[in-house]
Amino acid sequence: MTGVRLLTAPTTGPDDISALELLADNGFGTDDVLAVVGKTEGNGCVNDFSRTLASAVWEPHLKEAAVTVFSGGTEGVIAPHVNLLVADDRVDPRHQRGLVAAAGTTPAIPPAELGRVAHMESVRDTVAKLVAELGIADDDVHLVLVKCPLLTSTDIAGLRVMGVEPVSDDTYESMARSRAASSLGIALALDEIDTDTALAALEGRRHAWSNRASASAGAELKSCHVLVVGESDKAANSLRALHTEMKDAYDLDSLLSAAALVSERGGRIRQLFVKAEADPSGTIRNLRHTMLTDSDINATRHARAAVGALVAAIKGDGAVYVSGGAEHQGRPGGGSVTIVYEVDPPRFTPYNTTSEGIAR
Amino acid sequence: MTGVRLLTAPTTGPDDISALELLADNGFGTDDVLAVVGKTEGNGCVNDFSRTLASAVWEPHLKEAAVTVFSGGTEGVIAPHVNLLVADDRVDPRHQRGLVAAAGTTPAIPPAELGRVAHMESVRDTVAKLVAELGIADDDVHLVLVKCPLLTSTDIAGLRVMGVEPVSDDTYESMARSRAASSLGIALALDEIDTDTALAALEGRRHAWSNRASASAGAELKSCHVLVVGESDKAANSLRALHTEMKDAYDLDSLLSAAALVSERGGRIRQLFVKAEADPSGTIRNLRHTMLTDSDINATRHARAAVGALVAAIKGDGAVYVSGGAEHQGRPGGGSVTIVYEVDPPRFTPYNTTSEGIAR
Amino acid sequence: MTGVRLLTAPTTGPDDISALELLADNGFGTDDVLAVVGKTEGNGCVNDFSRTLASAVWEPHLKEAAVTVFSGGTEGVIAPHVNLLVADDRVDPRHQRGLVAAAGTTPAIPPAELGRVAHMESVRDTVAKLVAELGIADDDVHLVLVKCPLLTSTDIAGLRVMGVEPVSDDTYESMARSRAASSLGIALALDEIDTDTALAALEGRRHAWSNRASASAGAELKSCHVLVVGESDKAANSLRALHTEMKDAYDLDSLLSAAALVSERGGRIRQLFVKAEADPSGTIRNLRHTMLTDSDINATRHARAAVGALVAAIKGDGAVYVSGGAEHQGRPGGGSVTIVYEVDPPRFTPYNTTSEGIAR
Amino acid sequence: MTGVRLLTAPTTGPDDISALELLADNGFGTDDVLAVVGKTEGNGCVNDFSRTLASAVWEPHLKEAAVTVFSGGTEGVIAPHVNLLVADDRVDPRHQRGLVAAAGTTPAIPPAELGRVAHMESVRDTVAKLVAELGIADDDVHLVLVKCPLLTSTDIAGLRVMGVEPVSDDTYESMARSRAASSLGIALALDEIDTDTALAALEGRRHAWSNRASASAGAELKSCHVLVVGESDKAANSLRALHTEMKDAYDLDSLLSAAALVSERGGRIRQLFVKAEADPSGTIRNLRHTMLTDSDINATRHARAAVGALVAAIKGDGAVYVSGGAEHQGRPGGGSVTIVYEVDPPRFTPYNTTSEGIAR
């Protein structure tokens, strides 16, 4: 079994590993940590060394098989924090079900493959393997987090020397291409789209997305870190998850509906994992936004700041995981949403509730 | 009488004056315009020439007595737009009440006085004069918008040559000091605070604020432009206003309560005027935010992006007036909120509703 | 004849037109102005409204045939200023030669053509026409300044609706593509490259450049403004020009050599027109630079700041015309350089001096 | 003895410690390293985690007594790199003189003292102690590098809770105040100013500066790291140093004069340590600069980019140590300059050369 517990701790900086004390206080050791998923306070773009710093200080404390996913950018009200997904296979007899998770890493993605088919397939295969390890149905997967590489100007120059055209010659744009390939890999693994669709989407010829995909790019790694989170009846703990979608960057209704569903199920929100992006059309609800024409602040930073405020309002605090750049992670201009929540031991089964657009 | 109508039009750029066509389509002339209140897409800080550009293209079309208030910064989902407050004294017999407005300008604020007592008193006097002109009680005022100057490095150098210490030697900080003096002037004029309190607040020795004050600073003017908006039983139109306060930068509850009150009164929201700021304590609800330690993006930009998303969600579109830097405009870390809404002709009086914290 | 005089005036802001007084003080009227070439203090990127503001305040004062070229970005030590090129056909009998200039405008460049062959050809034709008007040999041309449009997100969305793929879907990148097409058009007109080379260069398949081309993109215009500056023996005034190239962004030697040549000729530098860019290889002299991986500051801003300091040091003051984004304007990573200088009436001919790499 | 050698290596990122290989290749061990002085590619401001990352990866490799000085910000053409100052007491019989260095650390500077008298005195005492250890005259000191703390918003909030007013309530401004106190401490220790002058300068009541002081602030440390570099006749190696001053941010003449002096002495420049700042008057040589009114890019970034280009041009490559914020490090608007150079074994004494303004 792979039952998990979620510990969330604010950080005083990217190099703050005091969450290890919280871990110990809860009776766990560092070997129990499956994944560290954090928001760090850099720019979330190419030269964000807050992610590298967090990786550098955390990784020596983690076992080989664990993964880190540090997403830069705590614009607006987002509070820097880390989420520890901790293996806890104890059976809580009051539950017949529980949250499970598995983590893994793809082989290194060579710069020549970044953002391309081989990258997409590598993520697909790793996600599929992890889902199989968990032994859950695709429908029980509520979140696949991927941390993937980007192209630095050194990478781009290196490719050019070899006569290989990089997927983009702009370092910031390479982050988008990396997230896109990763996300389509997730959608393939979860059987949400077929290969033809994925290939067409990768080339920008059609739209396709997963509401459970959350990909974030960074210079601090060369392979993809993958974390799969779902529900299983082989686990028995108080955590549950659901996923939905923000249809645009101020789609409060979707968030309120999902929160209402959690509440209806007797749950309390523990964390939201949400992707945000500037609508690529340049408009939202037919009104122009300026995120794509702002040469001072990159669009991903704008999007995180905006969506972060809505998500913090829903959770009631700013320690939320909102990540920018939502290519194929929710519809264009929108973003994928996963809520992890905690239920009181159920007295009767709450799972017959339906609410359109929210997968349970 | 000074009954007003509100026309809101999106803009394609700071120099877009096509709202003049909307004005004409509605049967008004440029002489009817009392004020143009817009969001322009600059950085909202010192070197924001989008404001200057908007002023330059609009002012030749306006009568001498009209004012412009261009607030820079459409971070995140905020859509650039202009709001025209247009004099319309026609009596709609279905109403016994209506929205009124008056506009005026203080004398020039010399750089030596900027952010200081004389500045505060100048705003106070102009606001008081405008309220008197409107002939309404202070309690019927729901919004006082002020556009005030800032100190450029040329101003600061000029003061130094004269042996005068500027209120701040940092141009960005001078915007905050200008907004502070303006806002305390508003609070004084509306009898929300007494002079001792205002002086202490101006010196940073105590907190004091108005939930009806909205001040924005810019390099495009040397005096303060002032717009007072309220309700009056001498007017008879379908517009109404209320004001409230966001207690912090993701206080969705206050916005939802105010929106519910509008709805209860049979109203439809036409516009929200909201101030936003990074909590000066460095935390929100006891969690650290990073707006004040981000040396790449100024705190006012972060705050507008975050609050703008909440306000857009409430209105249902991004053409909202959210302005950054809320010194004495709502409590520290929060911000003043005014909602202008339109009611169907009332069949019975809706004004006996109460909702704590929202002034009607 | 088209003899010109050069008046340079610092500005207090993009809307400062006090150079008109300098014009009058020198006995000229606004109809004498051929071109206003200025550095304004915006970000020099997509949302730089300082350029639009300068255009808005200057153009009503200029005759139809005159052009404005406002280049945004006064990073580092660059001082905001305007250069007026003023027609002055008076013959100074002490000179047998003089500086001449001609200005013109291409037809509007539709968004679908921006950065493409039609754009390049349109600039080529306008430059050729102006050179013909001047009646000078290509070798006597020392500077062709072009101000060209960019793609806004509205343009990009509009093209997509029509099923047209824009030259770039990134607004900032569209500036580079626009400058590239303009610069290759200049090189074609001056017979520096042939059509095959230009087409290959436009597609990024080979390098090609002119050391006399200076193109700057902006949202403030829809056609290209073109200014050709050269020497002619049909004019007789004290101004001269030469052009050279910076081989990389800190190629001080080229600047010092050119300055020495001016000095040798008995000249005093009046202005430098220099293009700057971040070396696209990611390195300069085999050492990594970080301009292309900085997601907070765009590379053109970095490049202007660096090159601006060298150019200001050569001129002795910061009112220099240094413009960012040097695609095909000097070799990759370098930039074109034109120096306008003033000579005392020559006692003997100074033109037999040679200095490698500097065209006279 | 404390003879030193200087090893400079470019870095591929802040976490690149491959200079350790260069160290080994030269026959040194990590215990020989006195100081690591690097330029890292963050924003050089408050939230620059590139410095913290570099410290985190380097410090485990260094002996307790060694110090790190990482200065963030490689704007423009500056190449990220590290300089290792390595103890090497071997006597080169061809020299009667050589470069020496000593490193140390002040006690922790409490937030309440940062930027204040106690901070200044703490630096003064540590510098004095190190100079004494070296046993050289004050005049033989050519560089004192200090890395000092800043105030985060957490520090500021903590002081407020204790009722202590911080030296600044702006985190970016706190860096300036920290550099100021450190630099005046250096000037005191070197007997360049007296205590009254230092106190007056600290309060902003008068100008005072050292041309040998170089202070850089960061969030990555709580005490001040200090490195003193000078010449001594107790050492015998091929390195020498001189110091001078840039009088403003494009004072190329001072750099050229200093370089000429090195050349005259038969030396080759090995490294330049230069401070840069935006002239606080808002002008340079009577022309307005815009570094202090740019709300998108902090002034220190502009200044580094500009000065960095001049310094790189002098050295011939971009791996130069140019640091921003030159309070009391060179005159206002200028900056201190130290050149470390290598001489061939002298055949006759080169020290009788004089060149005004350059201390040898």
Please provide a brief summary of the model.
With 360 residues, chain A is of the alpha+beta class. Chain A has helices at 19-25, 49-58, 117-134, 153-161, 171-189, 195-202, 252-264, 299-315; strands at 4-10, 33-40, 67-72, 81-87, 98-105, 141-148, 213-217, 225-232, 239-246, 267-276, 283-284, 287-288, 321-324, 335-343.
Give short descriptive properties of this protein.
60s Ribosomal Protein L30, Chain: A; alpha+beta; 28% helix; homotetramer; globular; 4-stranded mixed beta sheet; 360 residues
List strands and helices in order, with pairings.
Four copies of one chain form a homotetramer.
Chain A: E1 4-10, H1 19-25, E2 33-40, H2 49-58, E3 67-72, E4 81-87, E5 98-105, H3 117-134, E6 141-148, H4 153-161, H5 171-189, H6 195-202, E7 213-217, E8 225-232, E9 239-246, H7 252-264, E10 267-276, E11 283-284, E12 287-288, H8 299-315, E13 321-324, E14 335-343
Parallel strand pairs in A: 2-3, 6-7, 10-13
Antiparallel strand pairs in A: 1-4, 2-4, 5-8, 6-8, 9-14, 10-14, 11-12
Helix pairs in contact in A: 3-5, 5-6
